Amino acid sequence: MILWITGISGTGKTTIAKQLYRKFKKKYKKSLYLDGDEIRSVFQNNLKYTLKDRNKNAERFISLVKYLSDQKINLIISANITSNKYRLIARKKLKNFIEIHISANLKNLIKRDYKGLYKNALKGKIKNVVGVDIKYQKPEKVDFILENNGSKKEFLNNIKYILLSLKKSKKKFF
Questions:
Q1: What do you get for the CA distance between the two ends of the chain, in Å?
Q2: Do 10 and 109 form a contact (C-beta atoms < 8 A)?
Q3: What's the pLDDT tens digit per position in 141-165?
Q4: What is the pTM for the complete model shown?
Q5: d(C-alpha 97, C-alpha 120), whole Å
Q6: Which helix (H) or strand (E) holds 52?
Q7: Strand, coil or helix: what is 103?
Q8: pLDDT tens track for 9-34
Q9: Contact 54, 108 (CB under 8 A)
Q10: 78-110 burial, b if ≥16 CB within 10 A, otherwise e?
Q11: In angstroms, rounded to a whole number, what is the distance separating the alpha carbons of residues 104 and 102?
């Protein structure tokens, strides 16, 4: 089972992924959480944040996920895939793939901008920020869509909905 959580920076990918992972790990011991920023460091941070390098990173990440999934490990992933092209590649290459897309309006993203990405990008201090100077392509095909414009408590209520839906699905867990 692969739960790939996408969305631009600050939407809550990591927040929801870590909670889902805790729930999964209790029931399915062969579960692993992967974070996009951490995986970049595993690959020695040798890529920048240009669209070209983001796509190269997506290729690497998809290959890693395929390898781990083929080992019969449930994966909960919080990592953005910037383009629909690579989302479709992931969907084709990966079995038991479920994409959870999280969105939030820019006003809220700027408000909870703990990395300072949006503020610095809007001031012109940094470049290659998805949602500011790199256009974000919303997913064309997605299994779950979550909005994160309210409170953290409201947002985390989505976990119950996701788990219930997965339980009813025909997807295979390890």
A1: 7
A2: yes
A3: 899 999 999 999 999 999 999 999 9
A4: 0.92
A5: 34
A6: helix 51-70
A7: strand
A8: 999 999 999 999 999 999 999 999 99
A9: no
A10: bbbbbbeebbebbbeebebbbbbbbbbeeebbe
A11: 7
